[in-house]
Structure prediction request, 378 residues.
Amino acid sequence: MAERQGAALLQELTREEARALAPRALAVLPVGATEQHGPHLPVGTDHFAVEWIARAAAARAAAEISVVVAPTLPFGSSHHHLPFGGTMSLGTETYYRVLRDLLESLIGGGFRRIFVVNGHGGNQELIQLAARDLALAHPAHLAAASYWTIAWDDLVAAGATGPGRLPGHAGAFETALVLALRPDLVREPRPRRDDAPGGDARPGARYRAESHGSWQAMDGYTDSPARATAEQGRAWLDAAAGAVGHALVEFYRATGGDKDEDRAHGDDPVVGLARPVACPPRARLSRSRPPSWSRCRRWSRRFGCAPRCFSAPVCVRPLIPVANAHAGTRGTWPGHAAVDSPCAPPYHGTQFYITINVDTLPCPRNSAAHLPHLGLRP
Prediction:
């Protein structure tokens, strides 16, 4: 298997690179908020924290699995903070639709495992609903959680419940995170409340109670921000990143990600052979409909070559979505799979000659664009 190069950032990939990674990678979507955080913290607090934690967690997970981190969604469901100013919020229905559109975009791009990492309490229920609904609608695996719920035990062990509530809002916990990440953005003097509660107040109350005007009554922040230190923030960020990274690997493996990655890297005993073997130059696939995967495997045994390259246009959709650019025209296209094509690893240096009956191929979206890449010519 190829050596891992760390987590990839989606915004830094080309479309070809993203398409090649998507089927075997875990996509991580961080979601935050832009909202008031008291008189002392920036309105981007949730965005800064969840983006750092998601990327750090992905970097740790990338030692074991393939990970792609999507750009952070900087807006959340924050209408309860609108009275203070400095808040950009999406309503409940709008936020759900935005999140659903973003997740469906990732699924449409080929990702089959997606983990939403949340950094704002107001998003919690909506990210879980979106994950549930999309897993029902699409052949994909989705998970969604707030970083503090994933890392609760690790954060408690690191002392995060000592100075105030976990996670609270703009209290000691979040103030410590910003002191560690962007100390230049913390305004002094910080508010102090001597009677602020602490302790391990785990989530899971029997019911949720909400009161009109409750946020104004506490001036938009919980407990005592003055108790926070940058040293605490660094420890808590490290604890959160470690726990979230473990959760990413756990989810990936629980949904069969290792098997997909083995196929992509040629470790499957049938799909990827022990050494490069060129297929018969006149192997011909001609059927009234695309073959099943089991039939593809039988063909690979018969011809002694890897089906990814022997019959890539038919058997490995959507990893190699090759083309029926002339649908309805009878004939064959002789050609070869170039060594730099998506089907090459681990077969670099070997050319695979194929003859394709264009009438029997599926016709994926934008499939004609892949023909030159595979070296196919009419």
Observations:
- Residues 269-374 form one domain.
- The first strand starts at residue 8 and ends at 9.
